[in-house]
Amino acid sequence: MKVIEEYKRKLITVEEALDKVKSGDHIITALAAAEPREFLSNLHTIAPKVRDVTVTCCLPMVNYPFFSERGYEESFSLESWFYTPGLRAAHKEGRATFIPNHLHFAGTKRLQYKKCNVFVGTASKMDKHGFLSLSLSATYEREIIEGADLVILEVNPNYPRTFGDTTIHISQIDHIVEVNYPVPEFPNGQPDEKDIKIGKYIADLVEDGSTIQLGIGGIPNAVASQLMDKKDLGIHTEMFTDGMVDLFQAGVITGRKKTLLPDKMVATFALGSKKLYQFIDDNPGVQILNGKWVNDPYIIGKNYKMVSINTTLEIDLTGQCCSESIGHTQFSGTGGQADTAIGAQISPMGKSIIALYSTANVRVPGSEERKTISKIVPRLTHGAVVSLSRNDVDFVVTEYGVAALRGTSVRDRVKKLIAIAHPDFRDELLEEGKKLNLI
Ligand code: COA
């Protein structure tokens, strides 16, 4: 068969793949669990023969030697659309830098700034027609593949075959490296008492027939467990999560009332447990589509009753959300928070929800101790990055209730946000709000 011959012709070893990298190259790798683990684990081995190679990545699941260890700085620099603990550590030592972005624009804008010489991603096995699947992500990968000089895919039999913009023909790939590592899993905590309270408030806001998006983080995932009594929910989300599998299996997600791609669960990447990877494998009900389209607020807004549910690290009394930094220290990324929050409010009868615990138990800098602070603050911490502007914030939910901020004045926002703050901080917040002349 022609496609099998073509596949065999394109097979190379990881060493041969690494050999294709030249000084000055710009390599872009696939997102999160779709990252090419074999290639990245060995990238540091070519350090002696290359200089000034830029690697652009997003939410890497492993701390690869080329950025986590010292000594490779002259060969590689890492630039990322979303940070993880490993990237935070590399950043501290000057080996990583952040690329500010709204996720739906990440690939497009990056290519406008810098050509991509090499794209490296992962794929599930080829079918008899010569099609492979990019499996766990089509967030920016399709655009990069179209723009790259060289496309290398690690083909892994353990990776689920997904449908949508993940489908790619062998003729579009330059080289294949066969690998066999397990799909990285992303831990999911069990909902605690606070999650259940927050989940119940959110459940009151989610009407039957809504289409939902659940963001990254502990709370959005926990919320799914409180939506079990809903009917005919649909999915249009950036990240496909374990909670969505549970909702589908319980018959809550049917997609029947969806106005955009009815019946289909739409996502741009998937990250979770083995259960999730088994669920999306060969499942035509799940469409992994290009993030440029899925996360475009105007596309999201075509869904009737769209509800976005995300979380944040800190919110000020006027509604500005810092969801990606702790002070000036980059923690994660904007990702699709603004994309999805804005899109949900464009949607007819849509709602955007920011759900957070009222307090956090945070490390005291320079010590082993922790202290409880309010996540609702009079003003954001110095240097904090505003991920969601106060103009785009809608509902805010804590374990103490719901603040509906749409259309409100600053004075009313202060009152509403103090009412859902932890009782121990309410007086202080009011005093500070008065001092700042907000109320
Ligand atoms: N000040 C200082 N530290 C804080 C804090 C605050 N106000 N709030 C939380 N923290 C600390 C926590 O103590 C915790 O530290 P630890 O690991 O030392 O315990 C850390 O920050 C993470 O907090 P947590 O609440 O566990 O985070 P999470 O895993 O639920 O993720 C976000 C929350 C906001 C970081 C994550 O959702 C995110 O990156 N969002 C932006 C992207 C997005 O929303 N995309 C949507 C589409 S997928």
From TrEMBL:
Residues 272-432 form the Acetyl-CoA hydrolase/transferase C-terminal domain. One of its GO terms (biological process) is acetate metabolic process. Pfam families: AcetylCoA_hyd_C, AcetylCoA_hydro. InterPro entries: AcetylCoA_hyd_C (IPR026888), AcetylCoA_hyd_C_sf (IPR038460), ActCoA_hydro (IPR046433), ActCoA_hydro_N (IPR003702), NagB/RpiA_transferase-like (IPR037171). Keywords: Hydrolase, Transferase. GO terms for molecular function: acetate CoA-transferase activity; hydrolase activity. PANTHER family: ACETYL-COA HYDROLASE (PTHR21432:SF20), ACETYL-COA HYDROLASE-RELATED (PTHR21432). Belongs to the acetyl-CoA hydrolase/transferase family. This is Acyl-CoA hydrolase.
